[in-house]
Design a protein that fits this description.
The complex is a heterodimer of chains A (159) and B (393).
Chain A: H1 7-13, E1 20-24, E2 27-31, H2 37-46, E3 50-60, E4 64-73, E5 78-86, E6 91-93, H3 102-113, E7 116-118
Parallel strand pairs in A: 2-5, 6-7
Antiparallel strand pairs in A: 1-2, 3-4, 4-5
Chain B: E1 3-8, E2 20-26, E3 29-36, H1 44-48, H2 53-61, H3 68-83, H4 89-117, H5 121-142, E4 151-152, E5 155-156, H6 162-188, H7 190-196, H8 204-209, H9 214-218, H10 226-229, H11 250-273, E6 291-299, E7 302-310, E8 316-322, H12 324-336, H13 344-350, E9 360-365, E10 370-375, H14 376-391
Antiparallel strand pairs in B: 1-2, 2-3, 4-5, 6-7, 7-8, 9-10
Helix pairs in contact in B: 2-3, 4-5, 4-11, 4-13, 5-6, 6-11, 7-11
The chains are: A alpha/beta (159), B alpha+beta (393).
């Protein structure tokens, strides 16, 4: 275990992509844009020696979708790279090639929020069941179950 | 021999929970694996948005029947961070004791399941018998055996009386002796060595690349352990060390878990002997201010993460859960490649997958256009027979 990353070191590595802020001890957050996401992840894994993707956190903020890529490494500092994706065109470049575990997380996010990860080799369903209707994304705040639609489980006439 | 698609599940790989693998095999050797984990999605993240902080804790306790304490602790600690609450020391200690007892019962359960998958049912009986002692302690401390119901925002719901502390301490020497026996068995017993060594290998570089967590990662020499990296509860006070191993196979994962059993026992003993005096809970405010928290926790299976957003209300605006098993699946897909079909049960069981199930396999013969089903029991029997003929065990 090496020394925690300083805010200055993160600021230097993320120069031109966003201004980092110290959220609390051992946590640094950088807000950037979807276009700069791959560059930010690449710099985090090289210049900042991050080798573990903790989580791709997601949230519907009403206007768009927030994605936060949490990475950590031998320094044990969690770097959060945050982006916001517009609601009408929810597209983000996939990072499965930079971080292999992202592949399975991106599939889950695509299921639940309908965010398209451009460049993902097989954005197939993984979390929702096979009966779930296409184009319905349950973790969106404006999603409501449709009374006439079948969402899986035992069909009504059989119960 | 042509490649054959072997769908396993959804009713039942390794543990009793639903997950579907499509295993592409060339003869006995696995070429590729595809995964479908959609069978037990219950919409808990969505349901959590509709419940206040009092009512959401019992819901989260039911994310998992084995790591029930993990899910509530990681959540309440996140909400407490958002509310900027300092929880009484005694409550932190009680949470730590329950957390480590949970890790012990989970690892003993795993050891039994792994033994069962290789046909070593004597060890299965022994570990599950000893696990009962841990379950009894949990019941005496919390009042429950599975969903302990001990956590709430602001502390714990039940104090430990001196009699409970004394009874728990009295059970530890016997458990310690049993754990020592398992440590010896894991490194010397012939059946275990034959079936675990070299199976499901993962190098340190691969373990990092594929994002493995918990004992799976630590068996490949990765030193990540949230209890040390981002200390919470009373882990900074207790004497313990992170267990790692360099074998990188199922054998290594067994040694790591047995080693962790010993460390957990020491943490429990330290907690019971040094339990601070004072209250066990404080009255939290009803609502949490606007905040974004990443709460990390070392569950028995590895790093568990709850991403929490609060918004000046008494409910979460968003709860995003990343369980350790989801992080470990990628590595299973990699470790299975090049292995024998007969090793599927033990390799899948080695990450200790936490989903819920009973199952069958459909074997598809592409040339003859025939399908037939194998039950999990038949696959297990095949694995045992395969090794009996090959190794004479």
């Amino acid at each position: 275990m090496t020394e925690p990353l300083t805010l200055g070191a993160v600021a230097l590595a993320m120069e031109g992509l966003g201004i980092p802020e110290q959220v609390r001890g051992n946590r640094v957050k950088v807000a950037t844009t979807p276009e700069n996401l791959r560059e930010a992840i690449a710099r985090a894994t090289s210049a900042l020696a991050c080798d573990h993707l903790v989580q791709i956190s997601t949230a519907d903020n009403g206007k768009g979708f927030d994605l936060v890529y949490h990475l950590t490494g031998v320094h044990r500092t969690v770097i959060a790279i945050a982006i916001e994706v517009p609601r009408d065109a929810p597209e983000v470049p996939s990072v499965h090639d930079l971080l292999p575990p992202a592949g399975i997380y991106e599939r889950g996010i695509h299921d639940l929020l309908g965010i398209v990860f451009v460049g993902h080799p097989a954005l197939a369903r993984i979390i929702l069941n096979e009966d779930w209707p296409e184009g319905e994304y349950p973790m969106r705040k404006d999603w409501k179950p449709h009374p006439d639609r079948f969402y899986g489980g035992v069909p009504k006439e059989e119960t | 021999m042509p490649e054959v698609l072997v769908p396993i599940g959804p009713q039942h790989p390794a543990l009793k929970e639903p997950v579907n693998f499509k295993v592409i095999a060339d003869g006995e050797i696995i070429v590729r694996l595809e995964l479908d984990i959609s069978y037990s999605h219950r919409g808990i993240e969505k349901a959590a948005e509709a419940r206040d902080f009092v009512r959401v804790v019992p819901l989260l306790e039911r994310v998992c029947g084995i790591c029930s304490h993990s899910h509530t602790t990681v959540f309440v600690k996140g909400i407490e961070e958002a509310m900027k609450l300092e929880i009484p020391k005694r409550a932190q200690y009680i949470r730590t004791i329950v957390a480590e007892l949970e890790r012990m019962h989970s690892h003993l359960l795993w050891l039994g399941v792994a033994a069962h998958e290789i046909g070593f049912n004597t060890l299965f009986m022994w570990t599950w018998r000893d696990r009962e002692a841990v379950q009894d302690m949990l019941e005496e401390i919390t009042g429950n055996r599975v969903n302990y119901g001990i956590n709430e925002v602001g502390g714990v719901r039940r104090d430990m009386t001196p009699a409970v502390v004394k009874a728990a301490l009295a059970r530890l020497p016997h458990l310690e002796e049993r754990i020592r026996t398992y440590a010896e068995m894991a490194s010397q017993e012939r059946t275990m060595l034959l079936r675990f060594r070299g199976v499901g290998r993962l190098t340190e570089a691969e373990a990092l690349k594929y994002g493995t967590v918990g004992p799976t990662a630590r068996a490949s020499g990765v030193t990540y352990d949230v209890r040390k990296d981002d200390p919470y509860l009373a882990y900074a006070d207790a004497p313990w060390r992170v267990i790692t191993d360099n074998h990188g196979d199922v054998f290594g994962r067994t040694l790591v878990r047995v080693g962790e059993l010993h460390e957990s026992l020491n943490i429990v003993r330290h907690g019971l002997e040094n339990l601070p005096e004072g209250p066990v809970r404080l009255q939290p405010p009803r609502a949490a201010p606007k905040a974004e928290i990443l709460s990390r926790y070392e569950a028995p299976r590895g790093e568990l993460v709850h991403f929490i957003r609060t918004n000046n209300t008494d409910k979460v605006d968003r709860l995003d859960i990343r369980t350790p098993t989801l992080a470990n699946w990628t590595s299973v897909a990699v470790t299975l490649v090049g292995q024998n079909l007969a090793d599927i049960p033990v390799i899948v069981a080695a990450i200790d997958p936490c989903l819920s199930c009973t199952s069958r396999i459909t074997v598809v013969d592409r040339d003859r256009r025939e399908t037939r089903t194998l039950t999990w029991g038949e696959l297990r029997a095949h694995g045992i027979r395969f090794y009996r003929e090959k190794e004479g065990i």
